[in-house]
Design the sequence.
């Protein structure tokens, strides 16, 4: 069973607290993994025969209840029909999804595009508003061809360095699974891979609002230049430190490596993506070991691994194109 199907099936049982329902609504309404989510919703639709309304009728009825007026000729984008069907199946999210989708169907729909960066590579993109994003290895970015409405919003699964075009009337928002970064115009680095435990935000200049909404923590942090905030999804804890922006900025320009007091487990996840190699830590006691590493310009994986070998307590072996890290 796919991750998307497990999540959707769990919400059909109608037993989640409000905070989790809000997270589900944001996840379902985002264009990330749209095909997989639509397939899971379609399968749920096929299993359900307890109602005879069409999705169009259900949307009209919900709109009348929410806004006190009748709507005729509502056009439902094909990509949203399964989501509306899910709202019928799981009443707990009907209102939340309808608020999102009724707003959308009354306006023109932006064309959503996707950029996926292979492991071992990094890429640069300039968005319609002039914002520049440098994307790290294994990153996926979903963004509109043109920005519409009162905000500029993109969706990120991975790592990005951003130079955001200044526009005080239209905040720029990078949305991830558990957090949003809201800015008007600034430079920052964000790492938020869905598969990682940590979300890390490093502010180079300007100011940002770091809005976290996860099952273990919910809150807003206003950051200033040289602030680094790391949020641990697993424990719900926050770590706030200072860093040198001139060092981190170079990551976007020449591929420098900067690990600020990070666990060996997190570092190896990032190195595996950056160099497209499989790295296995064989001794569990090594996982939480913390390192602070800065290597300027592009370096080989061997150069990076050598810095950990200098610790004196770590052994590194290469066999069959795999890298094994163990205790000495």
Sequence:
């Amino acid at each position: 069973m796919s991750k998307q199907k497990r999540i959707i099936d769990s919400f059909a049982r109608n037993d989640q607290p409000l905070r989790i329902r809000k997270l589900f609504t944001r996840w379902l309404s985002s264009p990330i993994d749209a095909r997989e989510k639509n397939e899971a919703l379609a399968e749920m639709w096929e299993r359900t025969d307890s109602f005879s309304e069409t999705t169009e009728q259900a949307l009209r009825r919900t709109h009348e209840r929410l806004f006190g007026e009748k709507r005729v000729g509502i056009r439902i984008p094909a990509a949203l029909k399964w989501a509306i069907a899910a709202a019928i199946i799981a009443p707990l999210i009907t209102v939340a999804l309808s608020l999102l989708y009724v707003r959308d169907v009354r306006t023109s729909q932006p064309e959503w595009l996707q950029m996926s960066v292979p492991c071992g590579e990094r890429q640069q993109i300039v968005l319609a508003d002039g914002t520049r994003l440098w994307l790290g290895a294994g990153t996926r970015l979903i963004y509109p061809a043109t920005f519409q409405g009162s905000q500029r919003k993109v969706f990120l699964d991975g790592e990005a360095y951003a130079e955001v075009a200044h526009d005080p009337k239209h905040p720029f928002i990078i949305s991830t699974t558990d957090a949003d970064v809201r800015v008007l115009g600034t430079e920052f680095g964000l790492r938020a891979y869905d598969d990682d435990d940590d979300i890390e935000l490093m502010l180079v200049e300007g100011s940002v609002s770091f809005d976290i909404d996860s099952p273990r923590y919910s809150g807003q942090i206003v950051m200033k230049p040289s602030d680094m905030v790391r949020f641990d999804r697993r424990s719900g804890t926050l770590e706030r430190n200072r860093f040198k922006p001139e060092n981190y900025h170079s990551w976007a320009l020449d591929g420098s490596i900067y690990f600020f007091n990070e666990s060996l487990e997190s570092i190896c996840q990032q190195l595996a993506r950056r160099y497209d190699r499989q790295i296995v830590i064989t001794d569990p006691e090594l996982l939480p070991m913390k390192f602070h590493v800065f290597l300027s310009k592009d370096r080989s994986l061997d150069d990076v691994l050598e810095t950990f070998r200098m610790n004196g307590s770590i052994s590194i072996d290469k066999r069959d194109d795999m890298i094994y890290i163990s205790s000495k």
Residues 3-105 form one domain.
